Amino acid sequence: MVLGIVGVFTFYTVRQDRRKEALRQQMLDLHQTQLTEVAERYMGFRRRLETLVTQAAEGGEPESWADPHLNLGGLRGGEGLYLRIRVEATDTPEHIRDGALQMDADAITRCLGIAPMSMRGLYEKGEFLTPGWVDRLREEPDMMQLRVLDDQLGRHIQVDAPVVLSMMQADWFMLVIQQGETRRDDPVDVFLWDLRRNRQLLRARVQGRGLLVPVRLRFEGVQQGPAATIDPRSGGATDCSIASQLRAMTGTGGVEFDSADEVIDAAERAQEEQEAAEGHEEGAEGEGDAEQGAEAGAEEEGGAEEETPEAAR
Length: 313
Fold this sequence. Notes:
Layout: H1 2-58, E1 65-66, E2 80-86, H2 93-101, H3 108-112, E3 117-118, H4 119-125, H5 131-139, H6 143-167, E4 172-178, E5 188-194, E6 199-206, H7 235-249, H8 260-312
């Protein structure tokens, strides 16, 4: 009896192992036959961009320069890639990958009027093309995890591969290297390359100094809402300031304030005066209501006195 149970268990285990290895080999064969060429191109493209990032960071503060024929608005006519990364994450391909995966949205490219693809997506969507992903497939011991990888591979081929191929056809690459914790308090180094012609188009160190100036409008007959509380030195204003300085390098500059502190002080004074004026108006309205109430009370008392004789009669 015991030997029979052991035999059944052994047979089941062997069959499961065979199924597992058959699924593994099927996936490896698919990757080998369908994705080898794409994977080689993908890794080569990544190495090319990572080399540009490392070399730019190792060069220190760049001397401001822009190709005299550069038209930033013309970038909208092509496909671009964009990476913003901390300077300490630019020394190795692994650190660049980690830095790119931590990249969040900013307003620099939006303020330039361009919409490049994020290099974060290049790493996220192209992970299945890396040697590390294939190694994981070879070493995965669990049948359920292999089935998950099989499902993921199918989706990668159908959905992610076309996006990655599109990214690899990018015409230009913009890199922003943050020198400190924030773009507001520390400068950024900006680089732009023409990937088709393999040449640099722009380089500069830029210190953001943008401001959001609060403005309140009055319209007759429309009740004014409460004043919004904003930070004049918000991230969006800083990013648009960076973009404005880049445009200025190419001959299309934006409006700037000579003194940020003066603008902030003026904005704060205007807001205080506005709030004081609104408080005065509310107080005046309250006094008016009180006077009207007193007059109404006096009339009521007078009416009561007139009615008293009638009642006595």
